[in-house]
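Chapter review: from sequence to fold.
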Amino acid sequence: MIRHVVMWSLKDKNTAGEVKTRLLTMPEHIPQIKKIEVKTNIDSSSTTHDIILITFHDTEEELYGYQNHEYHQEIKKFIPQYCTNRACIDFYD
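The token string follows.
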């Protein structure tokens, strides 16, 4: 199993719900996502990131298919209006 983990800082903490809701729509459109988790930080005053996305994929091909999927590209255009300070890592679990 491969995990794709992305973290962002929110420009406005009040938009966390909107961002989370939008991220959670991805599995409906992107079959390469086997599982998804989106979490918000309970106390962002002491950290650099506010929201985390974790997607799960069976193979590297599925990960690349997800990353190149048209709906994922739409999400990538949506995120910058709400988030900054992106950090990302992919790993085998």
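Two observations follow directly from the output. The radius of gyration is 13 Å. The domain at 2-92 is CATH 3.30.70.100 (Alpha-Beta Plaits).
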